[in-house]
Specification:
Largest sheet: 2 strands, parallel
Number of strands: 2
Helix content: 25-40%
Strand content: 5-15%
Distance between the termini: 27 Å
Order of helices and strands: EHEH
Number of helices: 2
Structural class: mainly alpha
Shape: globular
């Protein structure tokens, strides 16, 4: 499981939480921007707004 957020801080917290519960999780270092700049695959679609 990979967790990602804009900067990497929230995903690190989420990955730590999941790991503490036995889920093999990793935070994507430096967040979404680093992922995109690294040439990694990105899928886009319609934006859903939270209620």
């Amino acid at each position: 499981m990979y967790a990602i957020c804009a900067s990497g801080n929230r995903s690190r917290t989420a990955a730590d939480w999941m790991n503490s519960r036995g889920i093999d999780a990793h935070s994507v270092a430096d967040g979404t921007s680093a992922w995109v700049l690294g040439g990694r695959p990105v899928t886009t679609g319609p934006v859903e707004h939270a209620a």
